[in-house]
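Dear colleague,

Following up on Tuesday's group meeting, I ran the structure prediction for the two-component complex that the binding team flagged. I've pasted the input sequences exactly as they went in, so you can double-check that nothing got truncated or mislabelled along the way. The structure tokens for the whole assembly follow below. Feel free to forward this to whoever is handling the docking comparison.

Inputs:
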Amino acid sequence: MKYTLVFLFFSVLTFAQNDSINLLDEVQLYGNFSPKINAGFQIVKLTDSVINSNNQSLGNLLQKKANIYFKQNGYAMVSSIALRGSNASQTGVYWNGIPINSTLNGQTDFSTLKANGFDTIEIRKGAGSTLFGSGAIGGAINLSDKIQFQNKNEFRFHAGVGSYNSQDYFYQIRSSTKKLFAKVNFQESKSGNKYPFLNTTLFNENGAFKNNHFKSVFGHQIDANNQLKIFTNYSVNHREFSRTLTAPSDAKYKNIESKILLQYDHFGKQINSSLKLAVINEEYNYYFHKTDTDFSFGKSSNYIGKYDFNYFINNQLSINSGIENKFTLGNGTNISEKERNIFESYLLIQHQPINNLNYNVSFRKGFSSVYPIPFIYAIGVKYDLLANLSLNGNYSTNYKLPTFNDLYWDFSGNENLNSENSKAFELSMEYHQNKTKLSLASFLINSNDLIQWRPVTNTFWRPINIQEVSSYGLEFDFQTTLDFNQHHIGLQTQYDYTISKDIALDKQLIYIPFHKGNASLDYRFKTWSTSFNQQYNGEVFTTTSNTQIVESFWLSNMELHKNLSSYIDIGFYINNLFNKEYQTVAYRPMPNRNYKLNINIKF
Amino acid sequence: MKNSKQLAILLAITLFLGSCAKDDPIDNPFKGDFEKGFFVINEGPFVAGSGTITHVSDDNQITPNIYKTVNDEDLGSIAQSMTFHGDNAYIVINNAHKLVVANKYTLKKVTTIEGDNINNPRFMVTVGNTGYVSNWGNSSDATDDFIAVIDLNTNMVTSTIPVGEGPEKMIVNGSKIYVALQGGWNQNNKITIIDTLSNSVAGNITVAEVPNTILKDDNNTIWVLCGGNPGGWAGVESKGQLVKINNDMVENTTDFETNEHPSLLNINGSDLMYSLNGNVYKFDINDTELNSNAISELAGIHYTMKVHDGKLYTTNAGDFASEGTFKVFNLSDNSEVLTGDTGVIPTFFAFQ
């Protein structure tokens, strides 16, 4: 309560300052993912051309471009992220700033979330619960649609065909004036997905999928200082759950997600504010046998109201603050109708006392109708040692709140669960020189009260706050480009080393690799371009006693593009170039070498 | 000359006698590494994994993962039980819907039994040269459960016998099989009698809910332990019950308290033993009242428990995501005689 009063106090303070502030533009564009208020953290931004050259899932894109580890139950099946040794519910995923991790299981399925159709994707590695709320412990990923008020019309069409009866297409219209903006897109991708399991006589049977996504974005520049925006997203995903090496399957799964966001932004001389109202719905239907009429289901409706403001006191000092209320209704076959309300507020003070030092201090306190939410704080520092070399450091306390499944699963749910807590520390350095960038980060995350489902009897399990985990490691990223005559070469190499241990067992967590690497080489000459991508996944343990593994593997992908004209290009992709046998989840083989041809039209 | 001839005869006799003293390999051939001792069948992880088999020899050597080592292939998802017939071991693989037939001494694979007539198989018993396997059928259909009848000379399913929901463990008595209908994914309360002369259902005996173990004593009396409905997601909680069946009729029942759900009934001479809430209890077959004294030395959260030759064999599944453990107790003094690691989720003991 004490802290809430402090926030209210700050929000009514005013200072009379007239300095022009171009921080404004940045925060206006990026909200809480703005580098300025994230001093001490690295934010990687993927741009339009990177995101939209191929129709693919967000998981596939992040593996190729950001060296992020995913485990998938087979191609296009459920894909879970593990950032910095954390689990799948400890990475926050945001849609235009609104949290979209499932309320039911706390996770995002990176196979059903499409990357293309978005304008930018921001990846912030490291813990950030003070700014982003529950679950942003390994990191936070924001998918955003940008609105720009300028006279412009654009039409995009994309179609692709690939091995195993795969097809996808994408249509987008974008039209804007100085006052209005509209973007609408629709896409579908589907596949028979019946690839062979290499070195066996089996195939990926019962793995077909089809998904449809619809998006619309509208904006109105009311006047020089005010904008109104609407974002919608609707997707339906049908998937059969594929067999494994040791058991057949005829299960299928359907999930429907709908999102709508109404946003009102105000830009003043010193204060920017943004009011967001969103409704995020999710529903899944699981058919044990695809011929059944019965299915088990779960759904949640989330009503979110969020108000953020940035107050630029002067060029050196600014304050960010906000409140967010999320009301959730959930129910399902195994969850009787339940509701939960969470109210959170945060405050961030950003200060740049001298030119090459930028630091911020942030606090967050939340209140819930169901469980206590701890007070958390963070400090981040960015020090520019030289013009092109900066050192970053941060320390934060963070939380992840129990999910609906943990709380309310019939008879097993535990309404006495507390939040999971993490303390995180990071030191990193970044070096820029012309077109070269090098960064090296080291991190430590200690978590306790992690929720695990444990057997009470051999047939009755319950979730309890019990596990303690310590994760630490190094992340290395090097990028450079070279341009001469009409040739362009780009090179990126990334390597992560992660230890993530269950303290009680003193063993590495399952499905967390020690080593993960990624390298890409791009080459462009006139109208041709090609790219070679090499991934390395180190071995992972599949038992908590670390006695069994999924083997390490090298995976190579290649693509070739040709600009037929200024507005058409075609692409040819070879995935798993060397036809390697590999799995990310034990007994669930991934595809052999496969091909794709696509065409992109943009005018 | 006479001496060397005598020496030669003496040598010949010695050699002849000597060779007789050795074991004649034709009488006692070496059958395989796993000829003696016992096996632990491990289910493997719940999802996407394989069952495994652990062998423990007579001199307490523990060899893990023997099926894969011998055959260089996985058993399949969820190994449930193993039954011997002749030289063969029939390993029931529940989630892969098949039986793997292997030589019971070497564990070398002989063949598999699968197809439409093996669907969620659970346990197997044999009568003469015929095998009977309980199958739950399709998980969303409560009416398609059956017993698969297998000709053990050809290892082919010859017919199926439809039964009620959830056939699980079985016991053979003469030419009849008593099938406990535990309930599969639901709860049931019957014992179905199969007449093996006609391979059809001869009748049903109603007992309490969730009959989880069935056995017979030296007098051919059938004993059934019913766990009772666990309540919660399963419905209305009900009492566990020990049922005594003679001449295909319920002769006596002994009730437990409503919140007591016993399981893993076993017999050691005239002592019945069962597991309840982490304790092991004894019940003399002539008792009418339950014994509330647990045998403290035998306590533990036992995933399975089996009495064999005066010893009690138990397993613990640990966190279900890593290797489990087994323990062997001598029932004459309840002392622990052996313990060791198993595979993931150890579910069944099979004794050579």
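DSSP finds six helices and 34 strands in chain A.

Cheers,
M.
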